[in-house]
Amino acid sequence: MSKFLEARLHKRHKVLVVDDEAVNRMMLEKILGTKFEVILAENGRQALNIILENKETLSIVLLDLLMPEMDGYELLEIIQNDDNLCHIPVIVLTSEKSAEVRSLNMGAADFIPKPYDVPEVIIARIARTIQLYVNTNIISHTQNDSMTDLFNREYFMEYAEVYDRYYPDEDMDAIVLDINRFHVINELHGRAFGDDILMKMGSMIKAYVSQNRGIACRSNADCFFIYMPHTDDHEAIYHEIGDGVMELMEDAKARLRMGVYEKVDRSFDVHKRFDNALLACNSIRGKFSVMLACYDLNMQKKEAYDERLISEMQKGLSEGQFKVYYQPKYDITGDKPVLSSAEALVRWAHPDFGVLKPDQFISLFEEGGLIHRLDRYVWDRVAAQIKYWKKTYRVTLPVSVNVSRIDMLEPDFIVAISDIVREHGLSPADLRLEITESAYTEDSDEIIEKVNRLRSLGFVVEMDDFGTGYSSLNMLSYMPIDALKLDRAFVSNIHKSEKDMRMVTLIMDIAEYLNLTVVAEGVEIKEQYDLLKKAGCHVIQGFYFSKPIPVEEFTLLVRDRAEDKKNQEL
């Protein structure tokens, strides 16, 4: 609870009496002194200084209107227009009816007529006013988000239910506004800048809903909810709020997304309505050309589908439905390409939906906090397979496995992956770890510390999806990695664009300077292969050599590699 509320709930309240007549000050001090802590001021200017010094603990001001230096009207106006002072109630001391009306219109809470002939009434009116303001500010502090002054989520949901009761037949829209990649703003400009964006966005939303009979809240960090009468022009809402927010964000690589569940089904509770709007909002995550989406029947079907996949994940793991596929990686530094390693990729052989690719379920497991279960399953299967190849063909072929940011933040992560390697009799270098570039930019200190520990244990760490982040080249100089993987989008046009090829060449030069291995993924045609080899790329992965294949097919490649190695030794 704030100092303000603590002071106002305390039984002995602090009262400031402002009057230029000494006799009036003495009378009020005598009347109030048994119930309150009384402070005295002779004029408005002196009173203002006292108020500023005691704004956190002052419970009420008793204010005469006609005074020298600064009169009561001027002081009342200052109090009412100052966000830090307007919570303090003011009772006007006057004997003029016209003055009573004017002061009440200016924001005074009450008035006490002169002369002060009934002390009990004066004490009662002061006590009632203080309690009224205490209650009002308790409600304000509990119902509003402290940063944006919008409703908090809990009060907003209750208010929406009340709104429904008063307007049962009105079509309503549930709207979600979310700043995509908001963490980038904090990373580039600092948390203070990010907080300023949220406060200004809150002001824009508050202004909009106040003009359109709506209510709004900040649901969490950078996500806002709006509940308002239906409109067919949702783009207008987006532009009225979104254009201003985008202007504030300047060069930050972030944008505003908006999801709408229009003409809500009132048989759903309020939380479900906003779940639907949030689903629409999340459906355009990563689609930078799309700013707005409306919830529809297809999303409802997909939601049910996704929920089923999540609920059946554990069963899939226990029944071995998840299959590890291997995409070969070829060392191209010699005269001819040589199979040197592989990347492990998972497929879900679902009994009803057929073979599902990673993009159909990985993000679901990440959002649901389940990805570490699947990842550890894959790590164990891959380690067992490497062990089999070593024993059967006497060849060691390292395999790269994906490690998510969520994995890295698990307290037992390093112990778990080290145990898997040890249990299968492998060297840590046999199980290479691919960590996405974006993982290094979030919780970066903790991630970097753990990567350093992994490398000290002998693990080889590759930065995956290099080229998709926002500060890649800057990061390379201090990130603890052994290799970087050029994202497929980075190399897809090198045979068509001289500019793209120059960028790849620049990265090769930097990697050579930093003694990093470069792996290019998504290589599909000979022109790309030839350009990358000429530029000094070390390893190639992509359809030019092979798509991801089942373990049985990849084992044949391992066998052939073992035979080639044996023949070379002879």
Task: Describe how the helices and strands are arranged.
Elements: H1 3-9, E1 14-18, H2 22-32, E2 37-41, H3 44-53, E3 58-64, H4 72-81, E4 90-94, H5 97-105, E5 110-113, H6 119-143, H7 153-166, E6 172-180, H8 182-189, H9 191-211, E7 215-220, E8 223-229, H10 234-248, E9 255-261, H11 270-282, E10 292-294, H12 297-318, E11 322-331, E12 338-350, E13 354-356, H13 362-367, H14 371-393, E14 399-403, H15 405-409, H16 413-423, E15 431-436, H17 437-441, H18 444-456, E16 461-466, H19 472-476, E17 483-486, H20 488-491, H21 498-513, E18 517-521, H22 526-535, E19 539-541, E20 549-550, H23 551-569
Parallel strand pairs: 1-2, 1-3, 3-4, 4-5, 9-10, 12-14, 14-15, 15-16, 16-17, 17-18, 18-19
Antiparallel strand pairs: 6-8, 6-9, 7-8, 11-12, 11-19, 11-20, 12-13
Key attributes of the depicted protein:
570 residues, alpha/beta, Rossmann fold, Alpha-Beta Plaits, TIM Barrel, 3 domains, eight-stranded mixed barrel, five-stranded parallel β-sheet, 23 helices, 49% helix, disordered N terminus
